[in-house]
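Q: Could you write out the predicted structure for this multi-component system? I'm mainly interested in how the pieces pack against one another.
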Amino acid sequence: VSHPTISPERTDVPTSDEDTERDRPWLVVVHNDPVNLMSYVTWVLQTLFGYPRPQAEKLMMDVHTKGRAIVSSGPREKAESDCYRLHTYGLWATLTKD
Amino acid sequence: MVEFVRTRTGGRLILDDAESDLIMRVAGELRSLLTTTPNTDDPVVERLLPDAFEDRIEQAKYQDLIGDDLVTFKIEALDAVSESLSETGSDVEIEGEALHRWLSVLTDMRLAIGTRLQVDEEMMGAEIDPEDPNGPSLAVLHWLGWIQEGIIRTCGGL
């Protein structure tokens, strides 16, 4: 599995925001789409995040039945990297704080 | 006939000439879409290169960060898959980085066909109507998914 060539030395961290806002983790959301197979989405979640199969299947079912699921979270750089890797596998992923 | 062979380190995919040609043809179409119109509002391109942020300013920052990495990854994956098919007479080892590339390519092909046909879950689950002019494309979409599941089962390493 390749990793994105996201530069680690980004410097444009906001300075005027309140610390609490900055510390809130970013959430990586996978959205439902009619094309990707359930077995494939489960495999990607197991492989990318190391989730055990039951956890990956539960997340996949949430995506399927509820339209979306939070699959990982963390600081901005980690969340962006996770989102990028999901995009390389063709999953529809976005980032949010809500 | 498509064959999946498990090996000690991964697996192999064996295709006949027609199957191999079909994959290379779809790969060529996808490649020209990604190389000639990477910045249009084509829904297929939007689906293959999705935004990470809803907020326009955040998305612009993210886009600056990743640059052309995603589209480059996808084009290189298409090239690697096509080259492996033409070089080996359609008997390809799928392990390590090749696994990521193959699954990415098969997914992008399916997403492109599905987005172009505006499929929904009902359409995806239904039998193909022989009268449907989109029937042949839907058949390719399902066939590529069947190959994808075979690769995961044989080479997926779980």
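A: Regarding packing and overall arrangement: Chain A is about 45% helix and 15% strand.
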